[in-house]
């Protein structure tokens, strides 16, 4: 006898049926990321929606969906939880985690902790900066450059008076193409 009433309308049933399709239906769009990679569903859940609901419990809110703790693991009670979209985005297989003051975090998690934009954090990581420089609030962390240089005006987009002068002096010094 089924314990869950109206199961075909419930968000839990929707999550269960979709994870089954991702893992076992080759015509499903997501099959290549799940079933084709060898990700499966435990026998207990495959055979019974009631067992799935007993193990997972009700979905906390509409902002949550099923997530695997280990993105390379199977759908099973010890590897699944209800997660928000942000938690799921941080748990993607393609995320690169770095050691940030003793914690393995993604760039988005570092951005949330430091208040610096995710794009800036990723850029600093890509340039190989250490954790102190990654978390620095200074806008001039990029590299050591001096005001009043053509590099400052063109590359760093500095519009201070010395940099603008340098730009105009550089233009004057450039040889003009003369037609003979």
Q: How do you describe this structure in short?
A:
The chain has 180 residues and is mostly helical.
Q: Strands of the largest sheet, in order across it?
A: 1-2
- How would you describe the shape? elongated
Q: How helix-rich are the residues, as a percent range?
A: 40-55%
State the end-to-end CA separation: 96 Å
Number of DSSP strand runs: 4
Low-confidence stretches: none
- Mean pLDDT across all amino acids: 80
How many domains? The number is: 3
CA-atom Rg in angstroms:
26 Å
Strand percent estimate: 5-15%
**Order of H and E elements:** HHHEEHEEHHHHH
Number of helices: 9
Task: Walk me through the structure.
- The protein has a two-stranded antiparallel ribbon with strand order 1-2. Strands 3-4 form a two-stranded antiparallel ribbon.
- The protein is built from 9 helices and 4 strands, in the order αααββαββααααα.
- The longest helix has 14 residues, at 11-24.
- It has helices spanning 11-24, 43-47, 49-56, 85-90, 107-114, 118-126, 131-134, 150-154, 161-173, and strands at residues 64-68, 80-84, 98-100, 103-105.
- Strand 3 (98-100) and strand 4 form a beta hairpin.
- It has 180 residues and is mainly alpha-helical.
- The mean pLDDT is 80.
- Helices cover 40% and strands 9% of the residues.
- The chain folds into 3 domains: 7-84, no CATH class; 98-134; 144-173, no CATH class.
């Amino acid at each position: 006898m089924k314990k869950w009433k109206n199961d075909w309308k419930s968000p839990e049933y929707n999550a269960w049926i979709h994870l089954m399709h991702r893992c076992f239906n080759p015509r499903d769009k997501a099959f290549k990321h799940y079933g084709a990679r060898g990700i499966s569903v435990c026998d207990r859940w495959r055979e019974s929606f009631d067992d799935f609901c007993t193990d997972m419990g009700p979905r906390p809110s509409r902002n949550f969906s099923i997530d695997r703790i280990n993105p390379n693991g199977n759908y099973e009670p010890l590897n699944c939880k209800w997660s928000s979209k942000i938690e799921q985005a941080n748990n993607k297989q393609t995320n690169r985690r770095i050691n940030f003051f003793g914690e393995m975090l993604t760039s988005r998690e570092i951005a949330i902790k430091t208040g610096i934009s995710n794009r800036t954090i990723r850029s600093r990581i890509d340039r190989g900066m250490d954790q102190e420089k990654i978390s620095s609030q200074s806008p001039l962390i990029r590299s050591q450059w001096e005001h009043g240089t053509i590099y400052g005006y063109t590359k760093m987009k500095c519009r201070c008076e010395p940099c603008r002068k340098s730009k105009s002096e550089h233009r004057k010094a450039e040889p003009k193409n003369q037609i003979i």
